[in-house]
Amino acid sequence: MYRTHTCGELRIQNKANKVTLAGWVQRIRELGAMTFIDLRDRYGITQLVVDEKSADDVKKITSELGREFVIRVEGEVKERSSKNTRIDTGDIEIAVENITVLNKSDLPPFTIEDNSDGGDDLRMKYRYLDLRRNPLKQALALRHKMAQEVRKYLDSQNFLEIETPYLIKSTPEGARDFVVPSRVNAGEFYALPQSPQTFKQILMVAGYDRYFQIVRCFRDEDLRADRQPEFTQIDCEMSFVEQKDILSMFEGLARHLFKNVLNVELDNVPQMLYADAMKYYGCDKPDIRFDMKISEITELVKNSGFSVFDNAEYTGAICAKNCGAYTRRQIDELTEWVKRPQIGASGLIYIKLGEDGIKSSIDKFFTTEQLQKIADKTEAQNGDLILILCGKKTKTQSMLGSLRLELGNRLGLRAVNKFAPLWIVDFPLFEWDDETQRFYAMHHPFTSPKPEDVNKFYSNKNEDIGSVNANAYDFVVNGVELGGGSIRIFDRKLQQRMFEILGFTPEAAESQFGFLMNAFKYGAPPHGGIAFGFDRFCAMFGGSDSIRDYIAFPKNNSGRDVMIDSPSPIDNVQLEELSLKVDIKKK
Amino acid sequence: MYRTHTCGELRIQNKANKVTLAGWVQRIRELGAMTFIDLRDRYGITQLVVDEKSADDVKKITSELGREFVIRVEGEVKERSSKNTRIDTGDIEIAVENITVLNKSDLPPFTIEDNSDGGDDLRMKYRYLDLRRNPLKQALALRHKMAQEVRKYLDSQNFLEIETPYLIKSTPEGARDFVVPSRVNAGEFYALPQSPQTFKQILMVAGYDRYFQIVRCFRDEDLRADRQPEFTQIDCEMSFVEQKDILSMFEGLARHLFKNVLNVELDNVPQMLYADAMKYYGCDKPDIRFDMKISEITELVKNSGFSVFDNAEYTGAICAKNCGAYTRRQIDELTEWVKRPQIGASGLIYIKLGEDGIKSSIDKFFTTEQLQKIADKTEAQNGDLILILCGKKTKTQSMLGSLRLELGNRLGLRAVNKFAPLWIVDFPLFEWDDETQRFYAMHHPFTSPKPEDVNKFYSNKNEDIGSVNANAYDFVVNGVELGGGSIRIFDRKLQQRMFEILGFTPEAAESQFGFLMNAFKYGAPPHGGIAFGFDRFCAMFGGSDSIRDYIAFPKNNSGRDVMIDSPSPIDNVQLEELSLKVDIKKK
């Protein structure tokens, strides 16, 4: 060992001990004949002192040190004259008796401080330097802790952690697969899993009863901000369970994590119907840290002579508490906000319940009495502000949902240290896509219809099929979907019907999922499961919106790892061995 | 929940309880009007009874059951009249009051018993049925337990589990990479990691101090029996350590696993020089469950007029205790064994120390006195058998090593429940390859030369370079290498020299490992690590030679997953999106 202690562990009790430390030079301060060095390692920072009484070679080496040099020092623990209460080692310092430079450092391209002066690109390229900063160290330590606690809980519940293969088979349904050419089987390809879905179902057929895995998944999607081509899931599956058993088991997991990682006691986790989430929050992942539900007022405002409302399929309102005194300018600002292309509203209507009575931008068309009815519907009181949007139903609900979140931000109703989890249940089984004129599975093709909807599932009317609900559920915290799952189909006939609805020919279903359909012939048990986005779960616990800081080596928005400069061309010998030719079409 | 209890938990104390169980029909026996069903789940087997008093529909459904049907039963726990002491639930049975078939099963293609009648290929294709058998269930449960205990130990030692990327960069040094074409970056490829080696070193540069990961690794090698294209490693790295610190830390891990998984207390783990392993055991992973060391007798037998010895570079002998009475036939058998192409000896010479004096196949050339000298050298005593091979030194040592293991097998000296771990240390840094006329790294290009050999490392004489020893070590148990690692180079100049010796141009070194060399500019700490083959570690603990049973979904010897039928062709749209063409050359 190059050290007797870490840079985070010495205390006043160690006074007069002879110690050896090793680490990085964080900061050097010279005060007259004295030099103070902050020595840093993963565990903390310890102050070193070199002064006029120090040996000549110690002084000489010290004078040549630079930031991020790796050094080893021997010395005696002394009590500091002026203590630093902000760090755990702040009571002591080391009087250096011996110093060795283990490795020099060039001047880093940005400062290794909590708030670095480096831009995103630079910090990605020098990720090893960025990872030295406290916020990233804390993020990865949090992730480690989360992973251990996930396993502790699931192990205690008799789950087995079972590794499923990464070299599997390409299945075009869903997102795009990354593929891996096989050299031994020329012209053939493996695919990297988008999730271990079929394998965990196979494990249930095999009788493993309770499975989990913290597992990497891969999706070759066009990247958006904060999407990664590889990401990590907590993947789980159980047999002989109904939906309520899964919700209760994984509410238990969430409770365990909140308690053991954040020391937060969760209240009971409420359940909300998907239909209610859309109706009251305009999205399927409502942030219920604050109320401000959407109220439909379509019927209240119809036939008022105000053509905008008269022609709208849907009119909805939200009530911003205590915002009745909003100025013209503040309301204009909100109007501009909803008119941005990301939201796409054509305008915003308001009703203010001020001290001087009810005022609105639609006074011309509505009596005070009518406006009061709207106020009653939205449960607005004196001093509140009502905001109204109208148009196509789903789209307008979604806009109101976005406006609600924006108001939540502006009003400080979305504190990062407050957690409001809930389950969304009873999702539709299918989404209809107008462009391709077909149904897509809202969750995935293995999700079971609700037993009471099985007749509609076998109907040949699109209307019936579209109204089938699924035994599917999402786990949502603070407006972020952290996990989702479903009770699976375990009946071969039902699964065949599902593939049929999704437009698979029997041959395509057989070639892609034949192994699962075959497995269902040999005694498949009822089963269901869930998967949590682990990166996002960690970011949520860390109080961050961005997953990137919670991944040690993330890729940028073009899917590149700029530190190692990958992807990159490979040589022709490799291509030939793989029986491949690169063939770039001009676009 | 479909059940109140599992099939493994009911005991006599549950007598008279009303319970609900769910599981698979393992066996049906009819005895007159009574039907006994063994109901199986992951946790055990419970006996169900249907008799003449049972309701008609229960009798009817029971009469239609088949093997591997999934059923749910309600009934009362009764004490058995004839108890089964071989299973934990053997005191009770369930008098069935209600029975539901949850899913039927076709007749399985092989029996789901501890010893199945299915061949390897069939069992691979129906892996989900094979996985229902006890030996595989136990193997995967053992693997789960191992993984949890590995994490428990390393977490307690302040290691952080950090996930490294799977989509990295192809580096032709070492085994062949699997590559992943990038769609977004046309003509470019990621590679799947052969190990997270460079990333864990980068994490040390980033100051993470102690890292581990149970991680999948990929090698596109021509498969041999019991090699898998994807396999799992326990991957670890530490900073500010010397070799002895690493050995002691991971001896601790081994001790923890043996104790907590197998309840075996390990003695101290001895260390053996690589040179001694080759000299005394003819291989770098000696099985020291038994002694039978190799003795070199080259000088004792030279110039005897026996040309075979006279012309041999090396002659060596092993002594098989108490085998002095081996018959002609037994010795012929051993002779045939060493002459097989896998061993490749041209013959086997013996000396028997029997009751009627010393007898040998070389009596013509050696006096009894000379033979006695050989016996003394090998520490043979009356009743023992000495076996002798000669030829090129390394090859002959290796043959003697193989013969030693074979004798160990025949003499029952290699019990699976006995464990003899050891460290092999001081490996050579390089291997010379005659074919390509260059040095290869024996461990990998990041392994540090021993400090005392650094001068030879900079020499331009191949003889010097070839004699450089490495700070490298292997962890060996019962003749199996379970892990290996090294102290790494952390000096940029030393690393450059390493690449130079391995025949990299500066440009190639820069393009493949530039990020690591750059990282070394900014304060790399001294560091080292180790990686254990997790599949093999599990197989060793399970008492098996084969890793395949310890992997849920292994591939066959052609790298195929025959259950899902992968790899497989992908469609042209996918290929076009990836800017690739399949181009199979006739061979």
Describe the 3D structure.
The structure is a homodimer of 587-residue chains. With 587 residues, the first copy, chain A, is of the alpha+beta class. The first copy, chain A, has four domains: 12-103, Nucleic acid-binding proteins (OB fold (Dihydrolipoamide Acetyltransferase, E2P), Beta Barrel); 145-267 and 532-575, BirA Bifunctional Protein, domain 2; 290-410, GAD-like domain (Gyrase A, domain 2, 2-Layer Sandwich); 431-469 and 491-524, no CATH class. Helix content of chain A is 29%, strand content 25%. Chain A contains 18 helices and 23 strands. In chain A, strands 6-9-10-22-21-20-17-11 form an eight-stranded mixed sheet, sandwiched between helices. In chain A, strands 1-2-3-5-4 form a five-stranded mixed beta barrel. In chain A, a hairpin with a 2-residue loop joins strand 2 (34-41) and strand 3. Chain A starts with 17 loop residues before the first strand and ends in a 5-residue tail after the last strand. The model of chain A has no long low-confidence stretch (mean pLDDT 95). At the A-B interface, strand 1, helix 3, helix 4, strand 6 and strand 7 of A face helix 3, helix 4, strand 6, strand 7 and strand 8 of B.
What's the CATH H-level homologous superfamily of the largest domain in chain A? Answer: Bira Bifunctional Protein, Domain 2
For this structure, the quaternary state is homodimer
CATH domain fold name of the largest domain in chain A:
BirA Bifunctional Protein, domain 2
Provide the domain count of chain A.
4
Q: Please report the two chains with the greatest interface, counting residues with C-beta closer than 8 angstroms to the partner's C-beta.
A: A-B, 127 and 126 residues
CATH class of the largest domain in chain A: Alpha Beta
Contiguous low-pLDDT stretches of chain A (5 residues minimum) are: none
- Measured between the Cα atoms of the first and last residue of chain A, the distance is 58 Å
Largest sheet of chain A: 8 strands, mixed
Question: What's the pLDDT, averaged over the residues of chain A?
Answer: 95
Q: Spatial order of the strands in the main sheet of chain A?
A: 6-9-10-22-21-20-17-11
The CATH architecture term of the largest domain in chain A is 2-Layer Sandwich
What's the total count of β strands of chain A?
23
- Describe the global form of chain A: globular
How much strand of chain A? 15-25%
Measured on Cα atoms, how large is the radius of gyration of chain A?
A: 30 Å
